[in-house]
Amino acid sequence: MKKILAIHTGGTISMSQDDSGEVVQNEKNPIANQDNLLGRNIKIVNEELFNLPSPHITPKVMLKIVKRIKEAEDEGYYGVVVTHGTDTLEETAYFLDLTLKNDMPVVVTGAMRSSNEIGSDGLYNLLNAAATAASEDAKGKGVLVVMNDEIHTARYVTKTHTTNVATFRTPTFGPIGIISKHHPSFFQELIQSEVVDINNVVDGVYLIKGFAGMDGTLFEALDNETTKGLVIEGLGAGNLPPATLPAIQKLLKRHIPIILVSRCINGVAQDIYAYHGGGIELQDMGLTICHGLNGQKARIKLIVGLSAGKSGQELARFMGNAIS
């Protein structure tokens, strides 16, 4: 019998509506009592590590989840499922992907409807995630996200709708597998990513979104010794209004690493345009273009890279590598 550890961290999947119709945390997770997957040879062992809404999750909490997963491997578990609130699920999943070796399947899941709602998806997603974590084919594919009968990579999946159960999508690339009657099937494979071992996480890494008419005000607010890194969601393929450049240059003079991604939901940031504020100039200034990641994922990657002691060209290669 394959033993799968289900690490519960909170979120809608563990919540219920109260008498006023508001969704609140339960003292006891209502789905943390599953121990057998539909009569199959899979044993689910439940552990309530946290009971946190996903906006309460921090990189320090993510690191604690990493440490528990490493212990689970030493304890002989075949795979691990992490249940999580959906608002920051993609960030935790990618943090795990960057810091865990692919020695055993790790699957992150959640729910868009609380446990007492009609059509609640929590238990269904948990069972699908456990079936995926028990699959031989899930090994070596990095951390996976299973929601709504689809299997996504932690690297590229993102939440695209505030309430729809089909909210988790992988723009540009699509899911790598599907699930039918709790049986996972894979049709694609992700290129191996670089895994970094860290014991702590740095603070002071920020994310700013570009917009029309933007000036240097927000960047000037980060011009201090506590700022360790910055990710900018640029316009289009990775461009910024010219009025932002003097303030950005001051940050670069402080040797603060600045990573450039696109604010677009599809496509990747590229150094295409040579006009003032275009991607070519930004790259020449010293910004690192991160290919394929959205802003929140790039920030997680920058935190991991800085926490591992990477700097200069080593950090730039880590952040700019399109396959990780």
TrEMBL record:
The active site is at 86. Coiled coil: none annotated. SUPFAM superfamilies: Glutaminase/Asparaginase. Residues 205-319 form the Asparaginase/glutaminase C-terminal domain. It holds the Pfam family Asparaginase_C. It comes from the Bacteria. Residues 3-190 form the L-asparaginase N-terminal domain. Keywords: Hydrolase. Belongs to the asparaginase 1 family. This is Asparaginase. It comes from Apilactobacillus micheneri.
